[in-house]
Design brief:
Elements (H helix, E strand, L loop, with lengths): L1 H9 L6 E4 L5 E2 L7 E4 L3 E5 L2 H5 L5 E2 L3 E2 L11 E2 L2 H12 L2 H16 L2 H10 L11 E4 L2 E3 L1 E4 L16 E4 L1 H8 L18 H15 L1
Parallel strand pairs: 1-3
Antiparallel strand pairs: 2-6, 3-4, 4-7, 5-6, 8-9, 10-11
Helix pairs in contact: 1-3
The structure holds zinc ion (ZN).
The site of zinc ion has 8 residues, from helix 6.
Length: 210
């Protein structure tokens, strides 16, 4: 079971053998100790083979059966919120999600917040692509700014208004994943966008499809 080993490594539990089952009531045998049985919310630790074999809470037959799951047993340790986040980030993320997070972190580090704010105000927080305006309170809206040619390596797009558009989160994801074409003619346009950057976006999209 791969997942047990991964969680053991990610959280540095230090077990010699780690097994995972979502519901926590059924496992293969622990063969090396200290050993750990893990479910979706925490784990049960066995320091020695004897402690495992003599535990009243588990029935060891061909499989290890735990009535009520490990979470109902004494000594069960719940994952902290921080640990759960770590597991989710490392295991549940697809490569694409990791790439998107990296792209957005880079953008956050490099961007000029003042320019982005100015752009949002120019469009009154309306998405230049779909026209959506997301209200989050009285006279208060939410919008994001996308760099058409992304900042940072390997794209090295510039942090200038000509390379930015004001978008809603949905359209932002579609742009970051190169899932949609950009056309200067079909978007809401009150500021100058450089064709060069639009072409760059569209070329990335073509490159991805072939
Ligand atoms: Zn939109």
């Amino acid at each position: 079971m791969m997942k047990g080993r991964m969680i053991n490594e990610i959280l540095q539990l230090g077990a010699a053998h780690a097994l995972y089952f979502h519901q926590g009531n059924w496992y293969h045998h622990l063969k090396r100790f200290p050993g750990v049985l893990i479910d979706s919310g925490g784990y049960l630790w066995f320091e020695t083979k004897e402690k495992f074999a003599n535990s009243k809470d588990i029935k060891i037959k061909e499989r290890v059966n735990i009535y009520g799951g490990i979470s109902s047993k004494k000594g069960y340790i719940k994952f902290s919120a921080e640990q759960l986040l770590k597991i989710e980030e490392e295991i549940c993320s697809t490569d694409e999600e990791v790439a998107l997070r990296k792209l957005r972190t880079t953008n956050l580090v490099l961007r000029n917040i003042g320019l982005a704010q100015k752009l949002k105000e120019t469009y009154n927080y309306r998405c230049q692509i779909c026209g959506n305006q997301i209200p989050i309170g009285t006279n208060n809206y939410y919008a994001e700014v996308h760099h058409i040619k992304p900042l940072g390596k390997p794209h090295n797009g510039p942090d200038v208004l000509e390379n930015m558009i004001c978008v809603c989160p949905n359209c932002h994801v579609l742009l970051d994943y190169n899932a949609i074409f950009l056309s200067q003619h079909s978007i809401l346009s009150k500021h100058k966008i450089k064709k060069e950057f639009v072409d760059y976006h569209n070329s990335q999209l073509k490159a991805k499809k072939t």
